[in-house]
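Final report, section 2: Outcomes. Of the targets proposed, DWD hypersensitive to UV-B 1 N-terminal domain-containing protein is the one most frequently requested by collaborating groups, and we therefore present its record in full.
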Amino acid sequence: MFSSFVFDIGDHWELWFLDGAQEEKKEGNLQKREEQATGKKKKIVAPFPSVAHRRPSSMALSASSGITLLQRYLEACEKHGVVANLDIQNSISEAQDSPSDFILKLNMEQLTEADMMALADMLSYINSFDCHAVDVTHNREIHNGQLLLRVLRSVGPKLRIVDLKKSTFGRDVMRDLLHRGMQCQYLNMSFSRFRKLDMIGHFPQLHTLILDFNVYLTDLPEGCFKATPSLTRISMCETKAQGIADPC
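The predicted structure is given below as tokens.
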């Protein structure tokens, strides 16, 4: 029967797997012979330590609850009765282990609706963590656009990049997005199918808007950018929008 032991040595996690006293003695003798031959002490480090054995950075801990963002995600999965998505776990772990910026990068293209429900639940707590920003990518057909918007809006002001190029929205979802807005800083909606940029929702942090290759886009209503006070860059290459010069 295997048992495991975890030791904290400096900035490293070390993990030993021992199979009874005889195996322990055998491994110990082998290690001693190798150390005598090389003159160096051997350090046995697990090549792929599990997420549970990693030491979380101080930025990954919630100031209010003292748990990590990964733990919050696992709790959300349990709450919604879903199996934790490995890609989401890896994204959270990479962000938590970053030595500098705690930026969560999520690719949502392969997520099920159940995955998105748990993710939205976790992200609703993101402001209690020292996470600097959240970037979201979805570059394929969207089966449940309203659920995607729910995930994006659950992030709040820490939402930085939203890349939705080549995503196909239903008319109701597009209207919801443009009329209610969101708090992202960069929004890419290239290769979409909307005809009118009726952007009356509040986008307080949006500084870059990419609308390239929206071949059906023809109408820019007067005042459509009034709710984007921080907007400094718009790209509309290969569109049919009237009243503006083609910058490309």
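The chain has six helices and eight strands.
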